[in-house]
Amino acid sequence: MAPPQKKLLFGTAGVLSLACALGTAAALGTQLWVRGTILCSTGALLVNASGPELHKFIGHIQYGLFSGQRVRQCGLGGRPFHFSFFPDLLRIIPASIHVSVILFCSVLIVFALVGAGFFMLNAFGSPYETLHGPVGLYLWSFICCSCGCLIMILFSSEVKFHHLSEKIANFKERTFTFKTHSEQFANSFWTILVCSLVHFLNALLIRFAGFEFPFSKPKDSGTVTGAVDLMY
């Protein structure tokens, strides 16, 4: 059986990994990845709007990885429009990047669940086989942290470099042209950042599990555990 400090640290890491898996799964299905405002530049130029009048031409947009909504305003009140990335926007978005973001989110969920299971097995079971010993735990944490970083990099490039919000705002528009007035990443995007940091923290917990803490019980002289502790 694992000593008390390993039970505490591995149990904590397992709970954190499980929370990250659930958080990523929740983030995957929301529309809270990007929020912003869009300006109807055509309408604003027609009436030469400025100052307070400009607010009549500023709409809102928010979207996630599968769907979203926009409210267009061209001086005549807001008109909401709901859209889906698949298949509605598939031809105007960088599809390969978008699908990669969804794929890495799925991988992050799977490996976070796998990592949570192995952390718990290390805490309350026999922790010294390779796949659910320290080598395996480092591997699961590294994969999850890497997937989280890739998700943020790819999605940021899709939004900032490929002007995703502007493409969505101008979807099926023939008369008016919209430009991004402001945009910011929303809760679901920052959830992925938190998950990446948590998996990095889990790697530190694995290392700390090899240290002796004051509340740990003395080991029996006949128990062979030195070689295993060196692995952490």
From TrEMBL:
Membrane-spanning parts: 97-123, 135-155, 189-209
Localisation per UniProt entry: Membrane
GO BP annotation list: equilibrioception; sensory perception of sound
Signal sequence bounds: none
Membrane topology type: Multi-pass membrane protein
Gene Ontology cellular-component terms listed: membrane
Coiled coil stretches, renumbered: none
Keyword Phosphoprotein (UniProt): no
Protein's UniProt keywords contain Secreted: no
Keyword terms: Membrane, Transmembrane, Transmembrane helix
Superkingdom of the organism of origin: Eukaryota
The family this protein is said to belong to: Belongs to the clarin family.
Protein name in UniProt: CLRN1 protein
Source organism of the structure: Alaudala cheleensis
